[in-house]
Write a structure and sequence with these properties.
Number of helices: 8
Helix content: 25-40%
Oligomer: single chain
Radius of gyration: 21 Å
Largest sheet: 5 strands, antiparallel
Strand order of the largest sheet: 1-3-4-5-9
Strand content: 15-25%
Distance between the termini: 36 Å
Order of helices and strands: HEEHEEEEEEEHHHHHHEE
Shape: globular
Amino acid sequence: MPEGHTIHRLAADHRERFRGERLEVSSPQGRFAESAALLDGRTLETAEAVGKHLFLGFSGSRDSSGSTTEPAPVADWVHIHLGLFGRLDFGVPPVPEPADTVRLRLVGSGAYADLRGPTRCALVTDAEKRAAGDRLGPDPLRGDADGSRAWERLSRSRTSIAALLLDQKVLAGVGNVYRAEVLFRHGVDPYRAGRTLRRHEWDALWADLVDLMRIGVRENRIDTVRPEHTPEAMGRPPRVDDHGGEVYVYRRTGLPCLVCSTPVRTAELGARNLFWCPRCQPPAG
DNA sequence: GCGTGATGTTGAA
DNA sequence: TCAACCTCACGCC
């Protein structure tokens, strides 16, 4: 499930459920057991998302007798990356026996969270957290993000815009679905080199990513079709698969484009599947 | 039951 | 460019 919107949503979910609470921390699967023991009984102070990276901040000691309501400084971060098929699921008590694949379990008074299959789950310092963020381009979901920082790289690159959109050093948080969809929405040929984009084209793509991904956080799924192309508006059946959201081209290979009816195309690009409409997104020039 | 693929990243060749 | 990693749901016997 994990593009940036999922991770930002998970950060908010952690804050909502656990902020300011002492948590039981364990690693039923065992691979995070040592760190879990260090965190057990400590307070989750905050949760933050940067691109597809999730950081859970825990304050120092488990026996801080100060019953203050002031947030304590974060002493350690848990750095989580879900990779391609990691999942983070919340539940409410009664807390069940964990599956033996659960890498990290957090238990609070009113909720628990199970992490499975992450590509990364590690205890890091504040400096390491900052370093991880510094390796990333601007994240459309962060208020402080500056799309022109991505433009500086993009506009000098011979690499295709499709590949650049997935390069987290260029911009952070976009995955295979948003890439395909935002290029479709702007009629941009995925194979165009970054350096052939005009500034106004990039500004429009960036602004659209900001909008689409915010909707993604809110709805907890990826919806990209405009009002005139919804199932209701077109009198077509809704999409039925595990992603749930309504999209134009992602995984619609061979199906008619919702705008022009041309069969949607797919191709492999850098070991990822690319989807586009050859008529709505023609080669430039 | 087995094989496959998936909204991702890293590190070696 | 390729393999490795982490998990699970689905299709096909």
